[in-house]
Amino acid sequence: MADSPKIIINFKTYSESSGEKAKQLAIHAEEVHDLSGVDIAIAPQAVDLKAIRDVVNIPVYAQHIDPISPGNSTGLYLPEALMEAGINGTLINHSEKPLKLAAIDEIIEITKKYDLTSILCSNNIRTSAACAALNPDFIAIEPPALIASGYAVSQCEPEIVSNTIAAVHEINDSIPVLCGAGITNGDDVKAALDLGAEGVLLASGVVKAEDSKAVLEDLVSKI
């Protein structure tokens, strides 16, 4: 289990978090981590991973990896190549990159083989309980309807968070649960932690903000 609550920033494919802007956002995240002591991780696009790893030391996650071995695959994300770029872990099964159960299981096994952190995303309580049986390092509950809505699941639908935690821990009480969807400020983070979540996963609330560093500072302000 994490020593302190995690804030994971998914860069997605926004123009505000691509190329040089991705590097600057990563630097802001590390600066806030250094000042606050709060565990902040980032998940940039694959094309930016190496450049970002060269400028920050906070955990850097892939947005996705594919359950493949080196060989004749095209357009997929090879785990070994992403590891060479310096990843510490990966998101799995984000609502914008859904996977079949067999693929999820294979990817989790790959993360265990290479000692990578696995953050398995889920869209509802029942699916989260099923995910727990696969033994990822984290489960992140993100109701799709609230993603990028500005309405935080931790405040608008807190029962989703608390019931997900209960369902996951009924299967495996050692798996920390994160929550996402609509998280934008420190009050949203505090509400998530008060419900029993170990941290949050968010994207646009930071990435598309006019002052991303100020938003990051606010996110950690009530931890």
TrEMBL record:
Homotetramer; dimer of dimers. The active site is at H94 (electrophile), E142 (proton acceptor). Pathway: Carbohydrate degradation; glycolysis; D-glyceraldehyde 3-phosphate from glycerone phosphate: step 1/1; Carbohydrate biosynthesis; gluconeogenesis. One of its GO terms (molecular function) is triose-phosphate isomerase activity. One of its GO terms (biological process) is gluconeogenesis. Belongs to the triosephosphate isomerase family. This is Triosephosphate isomerase. Keywords: Cytoplasm, Gluconeogenesis, Glycolysis, Isomerase. It is found in: Cytoplasm. Its EC number is 5.3.1.1. It catalyses: D-glyceraldehyde 3-phosphate = dihydroxyacetone phosphate. Coiled coil: none annotated. GO terms for cellular component: cytoplasm. Substrate binds at N10, F11, K12, I147, G182, A203, S204. Involved in the gluconeogenesis. Catalyzes stereospecifically the conversion of dihydroxyacetone phosphate (DHAP) to D-glyceraldehyde-3-phosphate (G3P). The lineage of its organism: Archaea, Methanobacteriati, Methanobacteriota, Methanomada group, Methanobacteria. Signal peptide: none annotated. It comes from the Archaea.
